[in-house]
Each structure stands twice: as C-alpha cells, then as structure tokens.
Amino acid sequence: MSKLIRNTLCVAALGVGMSLGYFASATAPDGGEEPPPPPPPKLNDCSPGFWKNHTEYWATQYCGSEACVADVLRNLTSQGKGSDALRHNQAAALNAWADGYYKAKICTD
After folding, report:
1. Where does the signal peptide begin and end (predicted)?
2. d(Cα 73, Cα 93) in Å, to the nearest integer?
3. What's the number of domains the chain is made of?
4. Residue 62 CA to chain centroid, in angstroms?
C-alpha cells in the first residue's frame, strides 16, 4: 500500500472531520492511481445498541471465546436496576478498544 493511501486512511480513521461515515479522496493521487478505498466507519462513541447489533466489528477481535462474546452481549442487553450503567460501561469499553484497535490496524507503516 502506498504511503499516500496509508496516510489518507490514517487521517480518516483518526476521525478528522468525520462522524459515522466514510472518507474517500475525490481525486486520484499523483501517479494516476485510483483513490483509496474508504476505511471502516469510525467506531468510537457508539451506543450499546450499535455494538449489540454489529458483532462483526468486535466478536473475534475483542473476545477470544464464545463465553466472552456471551458476557459482552449479556452486558449490552441487560435490563433492570443498574442495567443502564452496565450497558453504557460495556459500550465505553468497546469504544476505547475500537479506537486503538482500528487506528493501529490502519495507521501502521
């Protein structure tokens, strides 16, 4: 991957001017190459519902076992007294993990 494409993806992953969307260059980089593909959506500050419904972003990377996935899903879908804090704490943990994991995956040299 060329350095220009890697830097473009890195800037997009860092969320410069981004929300839950995609970033793509409008013009081809010097040398006539095609513009880089968009990076995955920015995954920090996502709700418990987002994480519950999008296990493909975290299940195998954040958790190493089915038991872990079950625990995280239990926390994200908890109900009753104190459950709001439990859901949001689990989402905050996933947000913090995703922020580092996806930046490192895209912003490596």
Report:
1. 1-28
2. 13
3. 2
4. 11
Q: What is the pLDDT of residue 90?
A: 96
For residue 107, is it within any domain?
Answer: no
Contact 48, 90 (CB under 8 A): yes
Domain membership flag for residue 105: no
Confidence category of residue 12, pLDDT binned at 50, 70, 90: very low
Let me know: does 52 contact 77? Beta carbons within 8 Å. yes
Q: Give the tens place of pLDDT for each residue, 47-64.
A: 999 999 999 989 988 998
Q: Which residue has the higher pLDDT, 18 or 91?
A: 91
Structural contact between residues 46 and 52, judged by C-beta atoms closer than 8 angstroms: no
Question: Distance (Å, rounded) from C-alpha 99 to C-alpha 85?
Answer: 21
**Where do the DSSP E strands lie in the chain?**
none
Instruction: Write down the pLDDT at residue 24.
Output: 40
Q: Which amino acid would we find at residue 89? A: N
d(CA 85, CA 94): 14
Report yes or no on 106 lying in a domain.
no
